[in-house]
Design goal:
Elements: E1 18-20, E2 30-34, H1 36-41, H2 46-50, H3 52-59, E3 70-72, E4 76-78, E5 81-83, E6 91-98, E7 104-110, E8 125-126, H4 127-142, E9 149-161, E10 165-175, H5 181-189, H6 193-207, H7 216-237, E11 239-240, E12 262-263, H8 287-302, H9 310-322, H10 324-339, H11 347-362, H12 367-376, H13 387-395, H14 402-408, H15 416-427, H16 432-441
Antiparallel strand pairs: 1-3, 2-9, 4-5, 6-7, 7-10, 8-10, 9-10, 11-12
Helix pairs in contact: 4-15, 4-16, 5-6, 5-8, 7-8, 7-9, 7-10, 8-9, 12-14, 15-16
The protein binds adenosine monophosphate and magnesium ion.
Adenosine monophosphate (AMP) is lined by residues 86-90, 117-118, 121-124, 243, 247-248, 257, 259, 469, 471.
Length: 471
Amino acid sequence: MTSPKFDNSYARLPDRFYTKMPPTPVAAPSIIALNDGLADQMGLDLEWLRSDAGLAMLAGNAMPDGAEPLAQAYAGHQFGGWSPQLGDGRANVLGEVVGPDGARWDIQLKGSGPTPYSRMGDGRAGLGPVMREYIVSEAMNALGVPTTRALAAVSTGETVARETLQPGAILTRVAGSHIRVGTFQYFAARQDREALELLLNHTIGRHYPHVDEGDGLGFLNAVIVAQAELVAKWMGLGFIHGVMNTDNTHVGGLTIDYGPCAFMDAYHPATVFSSIDQGGRYVYQGQPEVLVWNLAQLASCVLPFIDSDKDKAITAAQDALATFGDHYTKAWKRVFFAKIGYETGGDAQVTMVQDLLTRMADNQADFTRVFRALARGQGAREEFVDPTSFDEWERDWDGGDAALMRAVNPAIIPRNHRVEEAIQAGLQGDYAPFHRLNAALENPFVDSPEFSDLEAAPTQQQMVRQTFCGT
Ligand code: AMP
Ligand code: MG
């Protein structure tokens, strides 16, 4: 058995990037889930992970040799308001490993105890949010969406106080990095040019190796493209992130920080789930626009590395940001054309997609079920309150490529009511629904009779109308 071979590049950055500190031990840890496939991909020894030493690491109780746990510093705009000091208030990056394919992974514990960035928080995570992030982040990966991953979930044997008392848990989150727009903002706000340059080059090395060192504009353009692609994928799955604050916007173009996120059942562009999003800032249809706002914050941080002449740098950054729309539209077309079975298309196909979406919104049609039904060649019209509305649309549609649609329109998504059901069972100590849901979500594009119940839309009673951070 071998413990992870760490190579901690972030820990080699200067002290002001983080606080080096170990996680706070927990009373009685036990494994809820261990992601074998991901462990393999990362080159980790499964037998070791399952050993007492492995569990001790996943619980934050004892660090293996080579780990250099730290809490990262970052800042961010939360719902548009500036917070100069956020940071990992309940997380520790233990270190980095390089997988057999050369990919570098941060191993992070989320819920691992208080840090200097905890503010009023207890540094812990509840079982519900940990299960939710495990399910949804792994589902996103299987759905083809760039995302942080879930390597493990453990229960701590302790209790956390939220709206109610809840068992404590820790998620082992892994990702190519945990660098956010807010990480850049942290140093820009402190006018720490040296740190910004180190961060820029560190990030380029980890996420955009084709960009030259020190090339702020090349970096900005790369992030713009990655984020445009990402949000188009969210839109194509009916995914609503819910808290697109700049500290929750990953510079590598990954989905990060699954809090009150949700998948729409019935399609409506104005859908908002999060209980804390009173103004609807992070509404489904508003997500691309919010990203541009977040990317503008990133742009302002890297101006010194775009041009030494500030006016020229601003103009170049604005020009770069102005390309987001084109990148997004291109990605949106690719995603939504494929959803109706077309590799490519033009204005007529855009109109077809928009017409279908409008009819779906008018008819409370289930987003996932309608598109999967198109791939199956039957069942779509029944999803519409007025089925003739679909018939009218279908008259102009030539059927599309079924194989293409099957590959992009999932049969199974982590429906809110199913996630909720799995969490409620978990809170009672029964993890069977959680494991079953995870198993089904490993192959979301396959019609599996054994999981067909998970395809159903919620009944009025099952429907989840609001989601909570639960942090
Ligand atoms: P989030 O809303 O999860 O993106 O978190 C925003 C900020 O609050 C981050 O700095 C988190 O580390 C911090 N935070 C969230 N929950 C807790 C908690 N229970 N204890 C300490 N800090 C927390
Ligand atoms: Mg966050």
